[in-house]
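## retry 2 of 3
previous attempt timed out at serialization; input unchanged, resubmitting
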Amino acid sequence: MKVFLFTILLPLTLVGQSTLGRLAPLVGVWEGTATAYYPREKGKEPRIETVQAECKRALKGTYVECLSTWTSQAGNNRELRTFFNFDKRQNFYDILYLYDNWPGKVNYALYFDQKTKTFSGQDYFMAEGNTPAEEKVTWQISEDGKTVTSIEYNHYENEKPDYWPKTFEFTWKKVE
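## retry succeeded, writing output
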């Protein structure tokens, strides 16, 4: 089964001063909590993790690179390296996830809605049983730039069209 997506995003500051634009608020140290839900596995308890992350400017300031460690309540760690940048030619934010506990990588576009101040993206993947599936992700950052919240929903091709259960969410607080 595809490892669920997670990571980070951002409000407008430093536009014109950096190619990062809305990504600039990601730079810093973060900590928080995450919850994975298993809506297709009745009775399975959610997995709760704590998160530590450090995000830095990379490649001459054109990317933000975040290295995060996710620790389960049982003490198991996993790492995620995430790269973000703004694709000026196509006018979207690009996100790339590399996992230490999953052999694949995830890469998709995030679009910013000025009205809701929300980033939204969509990814397609193969679920258990080789079932085509898609995932929708939203990201919001607080007005003060000190909190990031992300929620993920997914849908399998063989399910009712309006069935999009929440599968993952996290909140990070800026430490420095």
